[in-house]
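Build the 3D complex.
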Amino acid sequence: MGIHIEWKDEVLIAKADGRIDGTNAQEFQRELETAVDTSTHAMILDLEHVSYISSAGLRVILLTAKSLLKKDAKFAVCSLSAQIREVFEISGFDKIIAVHASQTEAIAALKN
Amino acid sequence: MSANLSLKVETKIKELERIFAAVEDFGQKDDWSPDVIFRVNLVLEELAINIIHYGYDEGIHEIDITLTSESDALTIEIKDDGRPFDPLNDAPAPDLTSALEDRHVGGLGHYLVRTMVDEIRYRREGDRNHSTLTVYRKQ
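Done.
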């Protein structure tokens, strides 16, 4: 698991890769907490290169969404694989976190 | 034709890496779809983490894992000598509907397991939990 941070149009993009599971969820949480602290008004978590996520990783995404809500900042996830999308839907996360097909779509939605 | 994989792991989070590597290797050799590999990894991770976190007061214990692959389904068996725990009935119901600010954090693991497999059976054998989960190899 790794996270690459970049800015596009004043939106912080956290692009994760690899597996997000019980062995590295704490590291994932630390990286995203840093990203949340840095982000001003909008953040996107891009999961295009994430191949696997378990409840340990979902927990961190939910905590991130809550932290950003408290900061009154927008949050979206994008580019989920079919399996990760299914896990998101089963968990009911798609009802409380914006999910977009691509990073471009996510940026456009957050800028509106 | 059926194929088997047996694996003994200790009750340590680091052991998940060994489980994932074994599933990946067995799944590739046995021609599982990426979807089936994802499901089997998820089931084993969630059940193993629960045993590691809640099964024991102390000490390092052993978890026995067996995968049996047949043409139409694969079966995951997991045995431990921790506290009695039925993955079908003993896990609390998850919060799937609260608004973001109120959404309870955690408790999704067993719900994901129950949703992502096709059959679950549980029995307590002496001082051991024995869970059997089946995933159909549909297209």
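The mean pLDDT of chain A is 96.
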